[in-house]
Every structure is written in structure tokens, then in C-alpha cells.
Amino acid sequence: MIDVDISSRLGDFSLSAKFEVNSGITAIFGKSGAGKSSLIRMIAGLSAPDNGRIALGERVVFDRAASINVPIQQRGVGMVFQDSRLFPHMNVERNLLYSQWAAGRKSAVGLAEIAELLGISHLLKRRPHGLSGGEKQRVAIGRALLSNPQLLVLDEPLASLDASRKAEILPYLLKLKNEFGIPMLYVSHSLGEIEQLADTLVLLDAGSVVAHGPIAQMLSNLELPQLASGPDAGSLLFATLNTYDEQWQITEFGLEGQVLQLPGQLGTVGQDARIRIKAKDVALARKAPEEASVRNVLSVVIEGITETSGPYAEVDCRVGEQHLRARLTRHSVHELQLVAGQQVFALIKSVALDQ
Amino acid sequence: MSFYLTDAEWAAIQLSLQVASLAIAIALPPAVLLGYALARWKFPGYTLVNALVHLPIVLPPVVTGYVLLVLFGRQGMLGSFFADVFGIVFAFRWTGAALAAGIMAFPMIIRPVKLSFELSDGQLEEAAHSLGTSRLKTFLLITLPLALPGILSGAILGFAKAMGEFGATITFVSNIPGETRTLSLALYTEMQSLSGDAGAIRLTVIAIVVSICALVFSEVISRRLSRKLGGQHD
């Protein structure tokens, strides 16, 4: 668990952050200049806040009142920077093992295992300057992991990579999460990355924490326009892969006792999946449609309707324990006489698999 | 005209090498530390220290030599201290020539050193700290090796400068054959004598060759430096 309650002035900018998050991946999200990097630098011990307290698990690593400020060397925080920061005068293996030969750290996982997991075994003897951006970042992640950290902090690790390189790294991060269970702070200004990775989201705006909570809940909270507005806003749903139909090449996911079908073979049976559905791709009907091409129809209950100043209304629907948003015109809401508490059918035109 | 050096000329060249070696040995460690401080830190008196370091470039060498004579002469404050405490005498000794050469070469050494510390802005050091190494260890394992080409380049330029130092040397330690008559001083002496033309030309050629070699070496090394550090940011 990470427990942060700090405030600091940095020139004209003031940062104040109070949140606590459990293990798993916590995303720190905000626009450029929102104070994300300043915040994690303080958590990692690269700088000290003016006031407050930071605890990593049971360990208080900073407490102004008690004059505690554990130096970065002893915080046990592994850092992955946007620009990888590999040591150019050492080969990949020396970089990976730096904390062990230079600082005497012991790691529970070995070099071979980490290199295998990150797909960098064939690079060990190479120098960093010959590597691609994606390879450098994987080495940087491995180097941080091999320092035996209790917390891994990733500061926009994909921001300087192009789209295909990003896609190359994300699966490795998911593997880390699933195989090591190491808590991670993931700083990003890309909602797409966060939806795929994070369990918890801390929303930072102009130097203060606006809200924090479970990812799906945060993404569907209409009071957080930074997350929940825009043409691509929608819902994140957690489902399980049920079956794959070879004949029609359709993968079927189970979602709160109901079924979603996606074209293509999308993983292995029993696997957890994150499914992202844009609010504008959801239509509502009072009766289950018959003889329609839309395959994905979920029975949902309307939780609330928020009319915007424009032509649209955001309808918050509940599927079991999870939430699904639909963006309809205010006119349709009126014509269908939709009200909270009503049981309706959500027709989903397009479903994207996030994970 | 003979192409062969006379014994006296050989002695002058050997003495120059000896003086320049000691000069670099004296000047390099403080140049590295001061270069690091000037590149990475902002401290009160920064401008003053920076100006003092570069002073030997603009100050007439005879002034530097005279100041050294006043401070490090037998009766000088520092001169008597070194003589009494360590038994080291500078005045009219080759060690004094090395001191003068080291001070005159100092700006030449510190410039590339400072530049190479400026090239990396402390980000790699942050990464090293997060991986557990102390400030000192990080300096030795990361900062110093990466600045090595700059340090070498500074040492080479400084060595060439120290080998040819004239003004401050002759003012401080005079022109004593076998003790303080270095290459430049020997050249000056030959120019003063009626039959010295051939010797002057021989020494001139050697001075030019040494200087060109130093510039080329230093250039090659700094090019390697920028290539090496260039690979770390993309």
C-alpha cells in the first residue's frame, strides 16, 4: 500500500497530493504540467516535499514532522524513466546487474529469468546505443526489477516511443504485473495505456489530486471530465474468455452472467480480459431486438441519466456489478421515456478488447 | 645545418617533458573536481571562481610569474610554508617550473573537463542513485568514466601548453641550464646567441610537432566523446 499526503511549492507551482492506493498497478494520470513527475520524484526520493508524509507499505519513508527522509538509495523504489537512462559505457548485462555488482543488492529473481520475460536475452552483450527505443525501455525495466524494489515507478515509460513500439512493451508490463505482483506506479498522459494496465487511477490536475479510485469507476465518473468526456469516452468492463468458436471465428466472453462476442481468436479460455466499449457505440432498446445484425445485447438496468447542455445525454447502466455507459441524444431518451431503475437492453455495435 | 639535437637541447626537451608531467599531475585532480563543481553546481561566488580559473589566459604571463615569485619565493608566505613543512622548494627549481606550467595550463585542462561534465546533466546519476549506489560511488562508476574523454583531452592540451610555457616560468624560476631551462627557454637562449639559428629552428620544429599532435589527439578524443554520449539520448 502506498500512502501519500504531501504538499510542496516549486516556484510558481504548488503541488498537493493526498491519496492511498493498494498494490497492483496505480496509474497517475494528468495533462503535461499537472505535476505527475514532481509527485513521483518525491515518492521515489529524488526530491523532498516541503511538508507531509509518504509511507510505502508499513515503512514511512518521508515524514517532515518526524524529520524522516529515507535517501533514494534505501527507499527500495525502482525507477524507469521516459528516456531509459541506460549507462552508455556498460553493456546491457552490466546495466541490468548494476544494482547487484555496484550496490550489493540481492534479487529474488535472476538475470536469466528477467531477460527471458522481457525478451532481451539476446541483447546482453550489446551496448545501449545500438538498441531500439523499445529494447532500451525493456532493459531499463529489467534493470529496475533486478534492484529488488518494493515499488516500481514508471515515469511515462512509453511516451517517447512510437505506436508500434508501445504495443511491443505493453504486454511485458502486463506480464510483470501478473507474474511478480510487484506494486507499480505508472505515470502517463495516455488514457489508452492506463485502461489496459491500471487497477487504480490517481487523477492529477494543476498540482492537486482531483480524485482517485478503481479504474472502471473513475472512467465512468461523469464528474471527472478529464476522463469521462470526449468522443471516445466509454466504459471499461472486466470479462472472462469463455469459448472460441472455430467455425465462425468468434470469441465469446462472459460478463456478469451474460455474453459478449468478439470476432477473431482473442486469447485462451479462462483468461481475464478488459473490454472497452465507447459510449457512442451503445444503443438502448426497451425490448430485445429480433433478427438484428447486432450480436451483443446485454440486459442492463438504468442507474442514472445525465443530460448535457448539447444534444446528448449520458446514460449510466448497470450490468451486474459493473457499469456501462451509453451516449444517446436527449431526443431519444425523451422518446423512449427512459428513467432510472428501468430494465432495458444495451445494443453494442462495436467492442474493443483492451487486454 | 645539422638535424641532430645537441646535448643541451636534449636536456631541455627532457626537462620540458618532466616539468609538463609534474604540472599535469599537480593540476589535473583539482581541475577535475573544480570542473565538476562549475559544471553541475551553482554556488555563491561561482562567477568569481570561474573568473579566477580562467585568469591565467588573460593575465600577462609575467604577472602570473611575479605573483608566484612573491607567494612561492623563499621568503614568500606559501614558499616558506612548503619549505618548512614539506621540504619542497619551488624558487629557481624545476618543481617551480612545473608549478608555473601547471597554473598556466589549468584553464586549458579545465575547459574540456567542464564541458564533458556539462554534457550529461545528472540524469544518469539519478538512475544510479535509484539503483542503490552512493553519491561517491556513482561519481566513480558513472560520472567519471563518462567524463574520461574530456579529462584526457584536457590533460593532453594542458600537457602541450605546459611543455611550451615561457613567460611565467622565466619570471618565477629564471633560466637555469639543466634545472629550469625548458624547451621554450632553450629556444629563447639560442635566439639570443649569434650561432643559435640552427638550434632555434630544430626546437621550433619540435614545439610545432608537439602542439599539432596534442591538438589532433585532443580533437579525436572529444569527437569520440560526443559520439559516445550522443547515443544515450535517442
UniProtKB/TrEMBL annotation, chain A:
Domain of life of the organism encoding this protein: Bacteria
Record Pfam families: ABC_tran (PF00005), TOBE (PF03459)
Signal peptide positions (record): none
Species, as recorded: Pseudovibrio ascidiaceicola
Family as reported in the entry's similarity comment: Belongs to the ABC transporter superfamily.
InterPro entries: AAA+_ATPase, ABC_transporter-like_ATP-bd, ABC_transporter-like_CS, Mo/tungstate-bd_C_term_dom, ModC_ABC_ATP-bd, Molybdenum_import_ModC, Mop_domain, P-loop_NTPase
PROSITE patterns assigned: ABC_TRANSPORTER_1 (PS00211), ABC_TRANSPORTER_2 (PS50893), MOP (PS51866)
Molecular-function annotations in GO: ATP binding
Limits of the Mop domain: 291-355
Keywords: ATP-binding, Cell inner membrane, Cell membrane, Membrane, Molybdenum, Nucleotide-binding, Translocase, Transport
Coiled-coil ranges from the UniProt annotation: none
Name of the molecule in the record: Molybdate transport system ATP-binding protein
Automatic annotation (TrEMBL), chain B:
Main location per the UniProt record: membrane
Membrane-topology descriptor: Multi-pass membrane protein
Domain ABC transmembrane type-1 per the UniProt entry, residue ranges: 13-221
InterPro entries recorded: MetI-like, MetI-like_sf, ModB_ABC
Assigned keywords, A-Z: Cell inner membrane, Cell membrane, Membrane, Molybdenum, Transmembrane, Transmembrane helix, Transport
SUPFAM superfamilies: MetI-like (SSF161098)
Keyword Membrane in annotation: yes
Transmembrane segments: 20-39, 51-73, 85-110, 139-160, 200-221
Pfam families reported for this sequence: BPD_transp_1
CDD domains found in the cross-reference section: TM_PBP2 (cd06261)
Subcellular location: Cell inner membrane; Cell membrane
Similarity remark: Belongs to the binding-protein-dependent transport system permease family. CysTW subfamily.
Function as written in the Swiss-Prot or TrEMBL entry: Part of the binding-protein-dependent transport system for molybdenum; probably responsible for the translocation of the substrate across the membrane.
Protein name in UniProt: Molybdenum transport system permease
Species per Swiss-Prot/TrEMBL record: Pseudovibrio ascidiaceicola
Organism placement in taxonomy: Bacteria, Pseudomonadati, Pseudomonadota, Alphaproteobacteria, Hyphomicrobiales
